[in-house]
Amino acid sequence: MRQIGEGLRYAVTTPDIALVVLLMGVLGTFGYNFTVVLPLLARDVLHAGAAGFGALTAAMGLGSLAAALGVAYHGRATRRVLLIGASGFSLLLGAVALSRWWLVTIPLLVALGLCSIVFTTTANTRLQLVADPALRGRVMSIYMLLFAGTTPFGSLIIGALAERGGVQAAVAEAAAICALGVAAGFVYLRRHARRLIPDAPVGEPLEQAPATAHPQPEPLPAPAPAGK
Questions:
Q1: How confident is the model over 135-186, as pLDDT tens digits?
Q2: Are 38 and 189 in contact (CB under 8 A)?
Q3: Domain boundaries in the chain?
Q4: DSSP structure class, residue 135
Q5: Residue 48 DSSP code
Q6: What angle (nearest 5°) sits at the alpha carbon of residue 195, between those of residues 193 and 200?
Q7: Hey, what's the torsion of the CAs at 9, 12, 14, 19, to 10 degrees?
Q8: Is residue 93 within 8 Å of residue 178, measured between CB atoms?
């Protein structure tokens, strides 16, 4: 329990890591359960059958594949890419919620899948690069908890919203919450700008965030020579 507490304190007190935790906590809970309501969008909004639902899923997969190749080729996990992915995902999720036309929804889902993979891949990679080696495992466990462990709770919330106000309204509300989370991330960055790790130039590794869980005592000054 003491080690878990150290990992949590390190994650929330290190700005570069806390930013990812904040964004993943919001998007993981309210955005990445989108596949739960995708069948409802296909049936009730786009009036598509099984083949239509398969096309919607394939569209997201196409965008995800393109993003995976692009991120691998780009080779950088910067804050800018992280925030672009999170912002694009939130905006595109809202656009999908408003769309009632098949030819509009398909390209939106391609772009949504692209931004989704850009965000998750950058978040995962960035955490592993900046975390202190002694705390990296605990930091990644927090990431996986927020990425996969919050989805069932978010699915329950989105399902309740869809039953009450309709599937489009539920997706739009989820997109609005994701956008608020991204806005909170920008505010957090502004307030902690001086404590952020500078992004390294292309080809150079990122610096690691200092470990605050095990502070080292400052060395004592050397004693003065006798007679002085």
A1: 899 999 999 988 888 888 888 888 888 888 888 899 999 999 999 999 999 9
A2: no
A3: 2-195
A4: G
A5: -
A6: 85
A7: 160
A8: yes
pLDDT tens digit string along 87-97?
999 999 999 99
- Token pair listed for 228: 């002085």
Q: How many residues make up the chain in this entry?
A: 228
Residue 71, token pair as written in the block = 């991120």
- Tokens found for residue 143: 């990431």
Contacts of 202 (CB under 8 A, 6+ apart): 75, 76
Residue 180: CB atoms within 10 Å: 13
End-to-end Cα distance, the chain:
51
Second-level CATH architecture of 2-195: Up-down Bundle (1.20)
Minimal CA–CA distance to 32: which of 105, 123, 164, 163?
123
CB 138 within 8 A of CB 128: no
Tokens 């502004």 belong to which residue? 190
Place of tokens 């739009």: 172
HSE of 82, CA atoms in CB hemisphere, 13 A: 25
| Closest C-alpha among 36, 70, 6 to residue 171 | 36
Q: How far apart are CA 77 and CA 191, in angstroms?
A: 21
Alpha-carbon gap, residue 29 to 149, rounded angstroms:
8
